[in-house]
Amino acid sequence: MEAYTGFAQVYDKFMDNVPYDKWAEDIRKILTKQGILEGILLDLGCGTGSITRRLAGYGYDMIGIDISEEMLQIAIEKKYEEDENPTGNSKEKDILYLKQDMRNFELYGTVSGVICICDSLNYITKEEELLSIFSLVNNYLEAGGIFLFDMNTEYKYKEILGENVIAENREDCSFIWENYFDEKENINEYQVTIFVEAEEEEENKHRKSKLYEKFSETHYQKAYSIDTVKSLLEKAGMEFIGVYEAFTENPPTQTSERVCFLAREKFQTGKVYR
């Protein structure tokens, strides 16, 4: 079942509380500390390109991969809108966006670093598929390249989202977000219903009532333990550097809602691009 089809139209509206500027700055600091000051970065699950474009503004050559054609179309449109340009860096218009499934993505060569932000990897609900992604990342990283990604925690799914319903109403759109957490499988099911104001014909524009299009999507995310993720990274051939409270250098706690993992390619040579 496809996700982020109808929701893609209003994704940025409902994500306007996400501190993208700070996240991008924090990501840059982490990469810089690991020696990744320039070069090509891959943004897996790039969505509408909010982080991708900001990192391009810092001077990185960016590639964005996402499975949703609708999300990528918005990302492509945004990079040509001057009022949406966060830094004015010309590299923001040179971003390469690719429609690919992260479970079997392909590149033409290696990259300096790979990032995967906004809990994109929680959408991978099978351990063997997560391992496959980690192996692909390791394959396409340059020697010593860095892999940085975040994940929602079991605590967030169980205690924060749980069986809760989240709703938000805007002037031109609204959504209802119902959560169901399966503690046995550690999978959170989202039932998302979106109402978007429809474009009306000219003769209808003076009516007091408005027409709305309804979209319904089902999303699934899995909570992984830190030990499981660490084991899979090492099985994929990477060096596990650490796990932190998201985008900080602080260790995670029992109430951390989002954690950030950092891993490194172990200076392997003779890469074979798959």
TrEMBL record:
Source superkingdom: Bacteria
UniProt keywords, alphabetically: Methyltransferase, Transferase
Keyword Transferase among UniProt keywords: yes
Database matches in SUPFAM superfamilies: S-adenosyl-L-methionine-dependent methyltransferases
MF GO annotations: methyltransferase activity
Pfam families recorded: Methyltransf_25 (PF13649)
CDD domains assigned to the protein according to its UniProt record, in alphabetical order: AdoMet_MTases
Gene3D superfamilies cross-referenced by the UniProt entry: S-adenosyl-L-methionine-dependent methyltransferases, Vaccinia Virus protein VP39
Domain Methyltransferase as annotated: residue spans: 42-145
GO terms (BP aspect): methylation
Protein name: Methyltransferase domain-containing protein
